[in-house]
Write a structure and sequence with these properties.
350 residues, mainly alpha, Growth Hormone, Chain: A, 2 domains, globular
Length: 350
């Protein structure tokens, strides 16, 4: 659905598309509420609703990514993107806790009811936006399939863009050991479920603080170099978390890793949005969404596979070091990433 959403975002009013998608999320969450009220819904129904929820969420992420750059002046884009990413990370910290409290207080039915109502409230915020038609869309309309193919060709042809995607995949596929957090907490730190929660929260907490304090990026031109440095810092912090044998030092290192990842994410978003014309932003955002969602899943497979052959600590430490080494390979393969200059890109448009 990411690729389809990107193609639609580059040919339709993005506000209308976002509104329809938000209404779909209301309906899907309402379906989950109805299934909870039914008591024992067929498992197949839950799979269908989960798939629809994932698809609608993917479209929403793509459309929002394409809209944000047109809501602010180019010079304000770093702050806007940092705020967007910071709020997302904040929900990753607060959301599970609030969900648990809701389930404890009113059961699953109550949690889904609140979810549906808050999704409905978000419809009002979307209607407050003005029309968001793509700029610079010329020529005869093409098929959805051709539109998706054109977007993939654009990404492949832009070396700075491709480099930003590649280095993020490297960081997530080799340096994201979240699948091992429960194992580390139980067998290394002996902290049980509470320790597992702390490890998960540490990454998001560090990312949130960093994202909401990235005002200094407004004065940085060589954002590609910042991305490279941040990914290296991420890898080293992850490797350190695999070396230590106590919970709190590991949590601190994971928080530092989350902060580095946050800086990298904000800088990559700025690079991606500034090198992409508005008529192509939906399709670029769809590829970005695919990279962001698939990278951690690949990391789960890598971390689990290496841990099963060796140990959890070795898997975490070696993954972090592999991330650092492969980041160097990406720099060599995509030198345009290190050469990226925000002022040079923005000047012709401002």
């Amino acid at each position: 659905m990411s690729l389809l959403g990107g193609a639609l975002a580059d040919r339709l009013d993005r506000r209308t598309l976002l509104l329809v998608d938000q209404l779909a999320l209301v309906a899907i969450t309402g379906g989950l509420f109805a299934a909870a009220v039914a008591g024992h819904p067929p498992v197949g129904v839950l799979y269908v609703l989960a798939g629809l929820l994932a698809g609608a969420t993917s479209v929403q992420n793509v459309v929002r990514g394409a809209i944000v750059p047109n809501l602010v002046e180019p010079r304000q884009m770093p702050a806007a993107l940092a705020l967007t990413f910071g709020l997302y990370q904040l929900t990753m910290v607060l959301g599970p806790g609030l969900g648990g409290l809701l389930i404890a207080a009113s059961g699953v039915k109550g949690a889904y009811a609140v979810d549906a109502l808050t999704s409905l409230a978000m419809v009002a915020s979307v209607t407050a936006l003005g029309p968001q038609l793509p700029h610079g869309h010329d020529g005869e309309p093409v098929t959805i399939r051709r539109s998706i193919a054109d977007g993939l060709r654009f990404v492949r042809g832009n070396q700075a863009l491709l480099g930003s995607f590649a280095i993020d995949l490297v960081a997530m596929a080799f340096g994201m050991p979240r699948a091992l957090f429960p194992v580390l907490s139980l067998t290394v730190y002996h902290a049980g479920a509470a320790g597992t929660g702390l490890l998960f929260a540490a990454v998001s907490a560090g990312a949130t603080v960093a994202a909401l304090t990235t005002g200094w990026l407004e004065h940085v031109r060589k954002l590609g170099l910042v991305v490279i440095a941040a990914v290296i810092a991420w890898g080293l912090a992850i490797a350190g978390a695999g070396v230590v044998t106590a919970l709190w030092p590991a949590a601190v290192l994971l928080a530092l890793a989350g902060a580095a990842d946050s800086v990298s994410a904000v800088c990559r978003s700025i690079i991606n949005q500034t090198v992409t014309p508005d008529a192509m932003r939906g399709r670029m955002s769809s590829v970005f969404s695919l990279v962001v969602t698939s990278g951690p899943r690949l990391g789960d497979i890598e971390a689990g596979s290496v841990a099963s052959a060796t140990s959890a600590r070795f898997s975490v430490a070696s993954g972090g070091l592999a991330c650092v080494a492969l980041a160097g390979v990406v720099v060599l393969l995509f030198p345009a990433l290190a050469r990226y200059d925000r002022e040079a890109v923005l000047s012709p448009r401002t």
